[in-house]
Amino acid sequence: PVNIRNMASSPAALTVVIPTLNEAGQIEDCVRGLSWAGEVIVVDAGSKDDTAAVAARAGARVLDGATPGIAAQRNAGIAAATHEWVFALDADERIGSGLAGELAAVVAAPSHEAYRVKRRNLFHGHVLRRGHWGRDWVVRLFKRDRRFGGMTAHPGLEFPESQQGELQNELDHMPYRDLRHHLDKIIAYSRMSAADLAAQGRRASWIDVTLRPALRFWRDYLLHGSILDGRLGAIHAGMSAASVFFKYAFLWERQRRG
After folding, report:
1. pTM, 2 dp
2. Which listed residue, 20, 49, 148, 204, has the most CB atoms within 10 A of its CB?
3. What confidence tier does 2 reach under pLDDT thresholds 50, 70, 90?
């Protein structure tokens, strides 16, 4: 096992890529927690706050003025990486000492060309391990010849699932400051998802707008166990259902406009 205390003098042969847009409030904490990594690249899409300056002061290499979009920003950072191995991180995620040590060990002696990691999701100060967040695996560690694509809001790495390794330590994820921030992100992501569906020729039906959100709520709340998380579980399942409703409502609005 790798001792995280000794990694500062011998950084891991790994580039961490972080896409940003108006993340001045949390990018410093994110970057400073990556001192063990050989390289940190922040790819900023023209933030109107001082995200780029804060990230640079914290020790990141900043690529400013990138094309907006999570996949495009990640891909720009991957293309600029100097290490063979890359970890795709978001500004609202943190790599703890256990995962950092595991990453250093894996890139030193890899057995796969890409690895998935489970996210430990914090929701209003509590870890939620039920609902869809209890199954939140993302592919984030990979060789730099790979790229992201697919959905605009939640792009995935273009790599066969059957060939992925699995990391043992979790990735901390703190996506929402409060309910208003949560709702704002749901609306933003729903608009992106609706645009993706429209580009594929999809149209919103009555079932999409009415039954899909209800089914999502009961799936998360009962089938996936959010009911056991009390009021937070109900809120989380409700927000999950709202994301489905807004996605298809925005799709309906698009088709109505012609």
Report:
1. 0.89
2. 20
3. very low
pLDDT classification of 1: cutoffs 50, 70, 90: very low
**C-beta of residue 109 within 8 angstroms of C-beta of residue 121:** no
Q: Are 126 and 232 in contact (CB under 8 A)?
A: yes
User: How far, in Å, CA of 134 to CA of 226, rounded?
Assistant: 9
Q: Whole-angstrom Cα distance, residue 28 to residue 45?
A: 17
**Residue 258: count of CB within 10 angstroms of its CB:** 4
CA–CA gap between residue 172 and residue 133 (Å, rounded):
12
Buried b (16+ CB within 10 A) or exposed e, 36-68: bbbbbbbbbbebeeebbebbbebebbbbbebee
CA angle, 186 then 18 then 96, to 5°: 95
Mean of per-residue pLDDT scores for the chain: 92
Identity of the amino acid at 231: R
Q: What is the 3-state secondary structure (H, E, C) of the chain?
A: CCCHHHCCCCCEEEEEEEEECCCCCCHHHHHHCCCCEEEEEEEECCCCCCHHHHHHHHCCEEECCCCCCHHHHHHHHHHHCCCCEEEECCCCEECCHHHHHHHHHHHHCCCCCEEEEEEEEEECCEECCCHHHHHCEEEEEEECCCCEECCCCCCEECCCHHHCEECCCCEEECCCCCHHHHHHHHHHHHHHHHHHHHHCCCCCCHHHHHHHHHHHHHHHHHHCCHHHHHHHHHHHHHHHHHHHHHHHHHHHHHHHHC
